[in-house]
């Protein structure tokens, strides 16, 4: 038998619906699952430490070979709630923006919006560890994932990046997709897709076994995140990637 497929997933609440169905699924006999934050799993997929990952789509241009293997993604057709620019002051008064080291796609999207949509003259600052405490005065911050859901209760000004992208392009946005760095057996791909769909078809069960002190998870899973990689999401993704080139 072929060796097990190494799969890496995002360790945020937004991935729980996609992973819910894997537990007792027979696809687990064919794979090993690990979890980390998006920038780390991006590195693991590029370096070949894993075969498939729910990676930030912004890293696609860095891959020698890539295959989108599933019909599911971390996307949005409206405000995504967990990818935002947080600030104490209105957008045009911001002087500096701290960038989230856990992100790849949202950092690229923020840079695009700053330049072409919002047209801001700001200093962009890379981070490597905890930086949310730096978000104060005219220093703003991009925060993603569960930490963004918490930051919503802290910062008075919240600019949702998916919402801004949709205003800018009239297209939905894809933050992350299941991508492999080599071709995989059709049987694996079919089972993998089947496992992804189970949680999405059972959102109340997914909500029942997870908890967020910061955000209503039913709303998050059914209205903020949009999980189906539809033709219009693929179009949004292509448009985003062509902006990156
Ligand atoms: C919507 C989100 O999408 C995430 C954003 C990513 C990025 O910016 O690189 C990568 C994976 C997604 O989990 C989120 O985490 O809040």
TrEMBL record:
Catalysed reaction, written as an equation: chorismate = 3-[(1-carboxyvinyl)-oxy]benzoate + H2O
This enzyme's EC code(s): 4.2.1.151
BP-aspect Gene Ontology terms: menaquinone biosynthetic process
Record keywords, A-Z: Lyase, Menaquinone biosynthesis
Short name of one Pfam family: VitK2_biosynth
CDD domains: PBP2_Sco4506 (cd13634)
Highest taxon listed in the record's lineage: Bacteria
Keyword Coiled coil in annotation: no
Coiled coil: none
Any one GO molecular function term: hydro-lyase activity
Residues annotated as transmembrane: none
Pathway(s) of this molecule: Quinol/quinone metabolism; menaquinone biosynthesis
Described purpose of this protein according to its UniProt entry: Catalyzes the dehydration of chorismate into 3-[(1-carboxyvinyl)oxy]benzoate, a step in the biosynthesis of menaquinone (MK, vitamin K2).
Record family assignment: Belongs to the MqnA/MqnD family. MqnA subfamily.
Protein name, UniProt field: Chorismate dehydratase
């Amino acid at each position: 038998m072929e060796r097990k497929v190494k799969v890496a997933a995002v360790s945020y609440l937004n991935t729980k619906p996609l992973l819910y169905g894997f537990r007792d699924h027979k696809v687990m006999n064919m794979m090993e699952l690990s979890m980390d934050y998006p920038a780390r799993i991006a590195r693991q997929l590029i370096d070949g430490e894993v075969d498939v990952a729910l990676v930030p789509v912004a890293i696609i241009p860095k891959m020698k070979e890539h295959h989108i293997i599933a019909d599911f993604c971390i996307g949005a057709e409206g405000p995504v709630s967990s990818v935002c620019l947080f600030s104490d002051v209105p957008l045009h008064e911001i002087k500096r923006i701290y960038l989230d080291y856990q992100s790849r796609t949202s950092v690229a999207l923020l840079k695009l919006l700053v330049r072409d949509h919002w047209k801001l003259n700001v200093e962009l600052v890379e981070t490597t560890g905890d930086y949310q405490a730096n978000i104060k005065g005219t220093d703003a911050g991009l925060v993603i994932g569960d930490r963004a859901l918490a930051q919503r209760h802290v910062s008075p000004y919240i600019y949702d990046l998916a919402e801004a992208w949709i205003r800018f392009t009239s297209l939905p946005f894809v933050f992350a997709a299941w991508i492999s760095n080599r071709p995989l057996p059709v049987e694996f791909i079919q089972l993998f897709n089947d496992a992804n769909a189970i949680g999405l078809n059972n959102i109340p069960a997914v909500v029942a076994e997870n908890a967020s002190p910061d955000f209503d998870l039913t709303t998050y899973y059914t209205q903020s995140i949009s999980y189906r990689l539809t033709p219009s999401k693929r179009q949004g993704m292509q448009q985003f990637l062509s902006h990156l080139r």
